[in-house]
Amino acid sequence: MRTTQQLSVTLPKEMAARVKAKVESGEYASESEVIREGLRALQARDRAIEDWLRRDVLPIYDTMKRDAGRGRSADQIRAALAAADRAATESA
After folding, report:
1. Alpha-carbon span 48 to 73, nearest angstrom
2. Residue 77, H or E segment
3. Alpha carbons 35 and 41: distance in angstroms, whole number
4. Rounded to the nearest 5°, which phi and psi values hold at 25?
5. Beta-carbon contacts of residue 22 (< 8 Å; ≥ 6 apart)
6. Most Cβ neighbours (<10 Å): which of 32, 52, 76, 82?
7. CA distance 88 to 85
8. How far apart are CA 55 and CA 4, in angstroms?
9. Rounded distance between C-alpha atoms, residue 18 and residue 13, angstroms
10. Percentages of the chain per state (helix, strand, coil), in multiples of 5
11. How far apart are CA 8 and CA 66, in angstroms?
């Protein structure tokens, strides 16, 4: 039984040229290898985002949900950023 599946992919000319250049340079043996490597990189990025959400974002979300008074409104954040920008400009 086959463990691969053939697909037809349409790429913008610039991306297709980049794929071909990777093969022509000898960096990859085939266009399929280039695409597989790109998909592996995409999977790694997705895993990193999922890990970050679980490790850093969810605990903060849970804390804010339990004690919403600890949070700041968008207006408060904008005001704090504007004040920090003014202070940085004045000290420069």
Report:
1. 28
2. helix 74-91
3. 10
4. -75, -10
5. 28, 34
6. 32
7. 5
8. 34
9. 9
10. 75, 0, 25
11. 49
- Confidence (pTM): 0.68
User: Token pair of 9, please?
Assistant: 């992919």
Residue indicated by tokens 């790109």: 38
Contacting residues for 28 by C-beta, under 8 A, at least 6 apart: 22, 34, 37
The one-letter amino acid code at 51 reads D
Convert the pLDDT of each residue in 19-76 to its tens digit.
999 999 999 999 999 999 999 999 999 999 999 999 999 999 999 889 888 888 899 9
Exposure class string for 48-68: b at 16+ Cβ within 10 A, else e? eeeeeeeeeeeeeeeeeeeee
